[in-house]
Amino acid sequence: MKTKGALLRENNKPWEIEEIEIGDPQRSEIKIRMEAAGMCHSDHHLMTGGIPMAGFPILGGHEGAGVVEAVGEGVTDFEVGDHVVLSFIPSCGKCPSCKGGLANLCDFGAMLLQGEAVSDNTFRIHTAKGEPVYPMTLLGTFSPYMVVHEASAVKIDKDIPFEVAALCGCGIPTGYGSSTRSGDVRPGEDVAIVGVGGVGTAALQGAVISGARNVIAIDPVEWKREQAMKFGATHAFASVEEAAMSIAELTAGHMCHKVIVTVGEVHGKDVDTWMGITAKAGTCVLTGMGNMMESEVTLNLAMLTLLQKNLQGTIFGGANPKLDIPQLLSMYRMGKLNIEDMITRRYRLDQINEGYQDMLDGKNIRGVIRYTDADR
């Protein structure tokens, strides 16, 4: 079928809205009419080349929610009319990682940037000229229609707003899980959240819900610091350097048990700064993405050893998509998790470049594309 999509044809160039053609669902695949897509910083890394796909053009987008329109052969968990969230990490349930309780490290993840469908290793999306298109993380939610493997979809209740559901495809479980799973925040602990955009705000809520004593939000944007206080932060500072003395006073010199780093782009030179506000035997969780070509890190190895600190990487916040996404949405329904107020602005598909500029300018916690008939 013919539809539209937001494509990148080279690095550091704007998104272009083009006609694309999406094939029919093959074995183990479903076709989805998209209703909403989240605008995550990771898609901006596609533009800069920080996340290198296997080729161009690239169809962006890895957060989204919609309605199943057709199912391929062998699909048993979904039927036409189901509401679904697209999970940017597939979860096959059969590989050693999935069986070992690490669904966020599913073996399908090795194919996230290759562009070819995992069902048959062919391209499901093409441009109007017949060029193969590389969808972000096997998805490409910056299009009003998608065909994806069933491992990349999670069925949800039909009363959940699509904009809310979309954010649970990446940002909410990544941030929340960074605190509750990878960070293992415990009641009474002191926690710093470095960067309070969409992922950071979810991490902040995870720390609050886990019973953290002091929750310190650190972000250079004043408006984001104000929003962080509304989501439960106890203190807010513009930089780690500004926060360090106050953290020492708040914690009697012990510093933070957990430091969750959710900045838009991680640089190796900053790692020791984040470790500097991490307590003895504490954990610094690196959630934000760095450039895949960057490998140099500034880290005082003696202090890492002598103070028995932990530096923890995480993807998807350690979440199990099939389990955690419905659970987080049930928490939203019960008023325990505030997702709706994280949606700062809504955009049309053709406003995607405006939306990403707003993100870079610090105007959004999360921008969302809301699809209409005009987009289809």
From TrEMBL:
<feature type="domain" description="Alcohol dehydrogenase-like C-terminal">
    <location>
        <begin position="198"/>
        <end position="330"/>
    </location>
</feature>
<keyword id="KW-0520">NAD</keyword>
<dbReference type="InterPro" id="IPR013149">
    <property type="entry name" value="ADH-like_C"/>
</dbReference>
<dbReference type="GO" id="GO:0016491">
    <property type="term" value="F:oxidoreductase activity"/>
</dbReference>
<dbReference type="InterPro" id="IPR002328">
    <property type="entry name" value="ADH_Zn_CS"/>
</dbReference>
<keyword id="KW-0479">Metal-binding</keyword>
<dbReference type="InterPro" id="IPR023921">
    <property type="entry name" value="ADH_Zn_actinomycetes"/>
</dbReference>
<dbReference type="InterPro" id="IPR013154">
    <property type="entry name" value="ADH-like_N"/>
</dbReference>
<dbReference type="InterPro" id="IPR011032">
    <property type="entry name" value="GroES-like_sf"/>
</dbReference>
<feature type="domain" description="Alcohol dehydrogenase-like N-terminal">
    <location>
        <begin position="28"/>
        <end position="157"/>
    </location>
</feature>
<keyword id="KW-0862">Zinc</keyword>
<dbReference type="Pfam" id="PF00107">
    <property type="entry name" value="ADH_zinc_N"/>
</dbReference>
<keyword id="KW-0560">Oxidoreductase</keyword>
<protein>
    <recommendedName>
        <fullName>alcohol dehydrogenase</fullName>
        <ecNumber>1.1.1.1</ecNumber>
    </recommendedName>
</protein>
<dbReference type="InterPro" id="IPR036291">
    <property type="entry name" value="NAD(P)-bd_dom_sf"/>
</dbReference>
<dbReference type="Pfam" id="PF08240">
    <property type="entry name" value="ADH_N"/>
</dbReference>
<comment type="similarity">
    <text>Belongs to the zinc-containing alcohol dehydrogenase family.</text>
</comment>
